[in-house]
Amino acid sequence: MKPLVSVVIPTFNCEGIMKDCLESVKKQTYKPVEIIVVDSFSTDNTAKIAAKYGKVYSFGKDPKDLNTYAAPFQRNYGGKKAKGKYIYWIDSDMRLTPRLVASAIKALEKNNADAVIVPEVSYGESFWANCRALEKACYNRSDRSYTDAARVIKKTVWDKLKGLNAHLGSTDDYDFQTRLDAKGYKTIKIKQYVRHYEGRLTLMKQIKKKFIYGKTALGYFKKYQARGRKLAGQYSRPEFLQHHDLLIKDPLHAVGMIIMKFVEYAAGFTGLVYAMIVPQKIQLRES
């Protein structure tokens, strides 16, 4: 019998996109797969929809608190509940291609690896979503991008590393990959991709998102301040220059992408400064 794979999905008020995500997991050619949804007390039908596909746990932030980032806490909670030999943590706006899990597990076992990086391909219905898609295309050109981080991991490795450092907020994936590398665990990157649905992405949505990310990034900067080169790479994204031919082929969205990144950096920096002035606290609960 093939080893069980636990797919962990943190959620909060995402009923409009949840079904597509869960259907993509359900339709995987690889079996067996368990679906673990950790819902942060959604006020819509997210939990009800998820319950038709797998186990749903209620854990996360107060639903009235919109300015904190609880996803890594939810991922850790799901990791503790996981029974599989492997954990694959995704987000509710991701759609898996049918053979993705099978390809990841095959690559893990064939290469005697501990973790797998799955490239993301973005898509959506707005101009800014297309700009985001171009950005991701630049990253995916690299054998190992500064933005790459494993999402498929051996459960034993996950447990030894004690999961994600949730207090680092939005940089939890970067930190986890750094710790994987530091401990000598083998990470590989596969060619199969996961589709990341951006919907009708707007600049205002990105400003709000990156502001929250900036508030949670302070701990990451403090932890890795001695690794200036890596920090510079993760936040300057040199892939744009390395793969400029993609930008030349699509100048309209290239200009839009540059504008979007400038706005995102400004929002993130503002959030970072805010975190330096106002202590950040997150209150979690469980039911």
Polypeptide structure, described:
The structure is a single chain. This protein is α/β, with parallel strands linked by helices and 287 residues long. The chain has one domain (5-286): Spore Coat Polysaccharide Biosynthesis Protein SpsA, Chain A, CATH 3.90.550. It is 47% helix and 18% strand. It contains 13 helices and 11 strands. The protein has an 8-stranded mixed sheet, sandwiched between helices. The protein has a 3-stranded mixed sheet with strand order 5-10-7. The longest helix has 27 residues, at 251-277. It is globular and about 50 Å long. The two termini are 34 Å apart. 38% of the residues are buried. The model has no long low-confidence stretch (mean pLDDT 91).
Topology:
Blueprint: E1 5-11, H1 15-26, E2 33-39, H2 46-50, E3 55-61, H3 71-81, E4 86-89, E5 94-96, H4 100-110, E6 115-117, E7 120-124, H5 127-140, E8 152-154, H6 155-160, H7 172-182, E9 187-189, E10 194-199, H8 203-216, H9 218-223, H10 228-236, H11 239-242, H12 244-249, H13 251-277, E11 284-286
Parallel strand pairs: 1-2, 1-4, 2-3, 6-9, 7-10
Antiparallel strand pairs: 3-11, 4-8, 5-10, 6-8
